[in-house]
Amino acid sequence: MKHLKTYKLFESDINFTSDIMSDIKDISLEFDENDLRVHIDAVHNYSGMSGWNFNTHAIKIYLRDKFNRFYKWSDIEEGVLRLEEYVNGYPNLGIVIEFTSQSIEPVEISDFLESYADDEFFNLCVVIYDKEMLKGSHKKFETIGYTELTDEMWSDMSDILLELADEGFRVNKDVEDLKKVDNKLCEDVVEIVIDRWNQKFNFTQIEEPVRRLIDYMLEKRWNYSIMCHIGYSFHSFECGGEHPFAKIEKSFRSGSERDLHRSILLKNIKDTGAIKVVFYTDIERIIN
Question: Which pTM value belongs to this model?
Answer without folding.
Answer: 0.50
